[in-house]
Design brief:
- This protein is of the alpha+beta class.
- 51% of the residues lie in helices and 14% in strands.
- It contains four helices and two strands.
- It has helices at residues 7-20, 22-27, 33-42, 49-60, and strands at residues 64-69, 72-77.
- Helix 3 crosses helix 4.
- The longest helix is centred in the first third of the chain and has 14 residues, at 7-20.
Length: 83
């Protein structure tokens, strides 16, 4: 399987979305993720917004940490400061 032609850009966008979530899209003047995703479709970076969403979901896995709390497991976001 070959890399997307905008592979590096998609990784950066996915990283920003995974780490900063809605604060990331607000920095670009968008109120919703859907509008943010559709913008990249409009300018020709991706064919569908799901390409951006999938990259975000994939990279979110690097920010999840499972810990036990009160006898149950709870996932929480952690931030990787030195990447």
């Amino acid at each position: 399987m070959s890399k997307h032609k905008n592979y590096e850009l998609l990784n950066l966008i996915g990283y920003g979305l995974s780490k900063f979530d809605n604060n990331f899209i607000k920095e670009f003047g968008f109120n919703t993720k859907t509008n943010f995703f559709n913008y990249f479709v409009e300018i020709g970076i991706v064919e569908t917004g799901s390409v951006i969403k999938n990259r975000m979901v994939y990279l979110t896995l690097f920010f999840l940490k499972t810990e036990e709390k009160d006898g149950g497991k709870k996932e929480k976001l952690i931030f990787i400061e030195n990447i």
